[in-house]
Queue: 2 jobs
Job 1
Amino acid sequence: MSESKIIDACNTFCPGPLMELITYMKQANVGDTLELLSTDNGTASDVPEWINKVGHEMISSEKVGEVWHIKVRKTK
Amino acid sequence: MSQKIQIVCVSGTREKLQMAAMIASVAAATGDEVAVFFSMNALPYFVKGHTEDASAEGELGALMAQQKGVPPFKQLFKQAAELGEAKLLPCSMAMDILKITENELDSELGPPTGLTRFLSDAEGGQLLTF
């Protein structure tokens, strides 16, 4: 059964949010969805780049107010 | 494709340690093979019980020091080792000068390493110096 988890990395700077995501990604199971919350604008371009390089799946990325919501799925 | 990145940390200033730690952690967590060699003024920060904060070299460093939410460079180096198996190697020469042994360094640091060994491991990779 895949799970969904929210990781709140608001108010931390690069590469804090990405490292938070990677930490949780390591612990997650294949199929799990992780939603990263970040106020660091660089995260919005860095996370898709990392996901693409490592080979996981981007689900969505949108900015709501000041906060980026970046959803990804662990695929391996 | 993963690459091999060798980082040499020489400076003890906040900006340089931070930049080196950012590159090490992101590269290692992305699957690159990373080794960081700590020598000169960069090594004392990894001696157990060292509390002095790295001083800023300029404006960005000063702003980073005040700003909450900047991941500390030591935490980033540790994550590089834990999440990406980066090797954190203390320079054996700097250890001799400081008169310290391996046990007196933070546990995430690897074995004391000489230049010859580091350079032979670095062959074929990219070498960045901070």
Note: The longest strand of chain B covers residues 4-9.
Job 2
Amino acid sequence: MTTHNMLIAPDFSPERFAGWHMFNTLIQKRANLNMHLNIPASHAEQEQVINAGDIQVIYANPFDAATLIREQGYRAVARPIGKSDEMVIAAGANSEINRLEDIQAGATVAMADNRDVKLIGLRLLEAVDIEEADLQWDVTETYQAAARKVIKGDAQAAFFLAEIFHSFSRLTKTQLTVLIESDLADISHVLLIKDGFSDTQIFMDAILNLHNDDEGKEALAELGMPQGFEAMTEEDAEFMIDLMQTLLD
Amino acid sequence: MGSPIPDAHKPELPAEQIILTYHDGTSRTVYDTGIERAYPDGKLIVSRTDLNGVITHVNDAFVEISGYHVDELIGQQHYILRHPDMPKAAYKDLWDTAAAGQKWHGYVKNLCKDGSHYWVYATVVPNIRRGETVGYTSVRRKPSRSKIEAAMAQYAQMKQNEEG
């Protein structure tokens, strides 16, 4: 049996790690496919793996999906239902920054290395006349490290992937003030398959039916996608890409 | 020439009555109460049109702030949102740029159904499918107060030149 390769974009909460393994095990069993799971540790590693070729399935973040669809021969086939990609800008609860307007030019922003979170955060800061060049950037290994920086006062604000922010402990969250949370709604991660992937139909049947039984529901719950996946048309993906184009500048 | 969009309802609040004439030669009575609606924090206001500027899609944030029901928007000309303070040249620039296949950015004052208004920073991109433009997507973000004030001054000047 041919072994296919599936790659999961690295920007998920660490607690979802087991969920991706459960997901892969189930899909292999149900579609009767051999699927090797690739979970790169960083965006740079993701690019390396994809450019090396032989990746048939990618769970991609929306900004990467644009390039993968328009330039690298992938097409979007499914997305998680009700799970859009959002971000949070927060400050230390004890700091003097209580509103977005309190962030001043020269402030330091702590964040893990995630261009999408940075891009959306910058779009939100436009509303208070703050641009990228006005800020100092402190790139941390993890979002947890970014939270520590802002709590200790080493940074005036921090950018988080919303899902990761909401997974923080209550203790961490009480030490942070949310200045804004995005509600873009139409932008989400997408499941891509490479053109010419021979097992598309059987793979799609397995993905779209995951939420219909207990085992599937358990894996989806671990992934924070309790409603499962919905099919995506080519036009759905193109619409999302057009939308993201507007956010680039 | 009558407009395909019905005249606006006269609001209960005091409002200036204006007859707007659109680029297609149609005209319509609208009202301006001068009341500004706050842009919804964290959200994008999204719409799509066909090549003729007819609305084909609006998101929830669009519907909510506009004050219209979704059925009053789909199938209607996008200029249903045009505020009388907006200079014609701004829209001409938007449509010329988008029709040339380019991205357009700009500050826009939009008119709500009840005569109030809201400011946005709009980006319009052509929807290119297999090499052909099939429509346009407009995505609005929250503009800063300083940029709104600059746009107000600029548009007032442009309007004066239009009338002069």
Note: Chain A has a mean pLDDT of 93.
